[in-house]
Write a structure and sequence with these properties.
The chain is of the alpha+beta class and about 60 residues long. The protein has one domain. The protein is flat and about 40 Å long.
């Protein structure tokens, strides 16, 4: 699983509900026994490069052929 909830932007107003939504979704998925590593929970202030790397790793490491 990959959870992303970005709330802080360089040139836009903060969206605090996005961090809250991401945190709540993380808690819900964990309570349902979904496996989410620390690297796959990105909430609050997230740098573009960090998010890009997490997305690429998530999809390339979780592909089953």
């Amino acid at each position: 699983m990959l959870v992303i909830g970005i709330s802080e932007y360089d040139k836009l107003a903060s969206l605090s509900f996005c961090k809250n939504d991401g945190d709540k979704m993380y808690e819900l998925l964990k309570s349902l026994d979904y496996e989410i590593t620390d690297n796959n929970k990105l909430t609050g202030t997230v740098k573009w490069a960090e998010m890009r790397e997490a997305i690429i790793k998530f999809f390339t490491q979780n592909v089953k052929i």
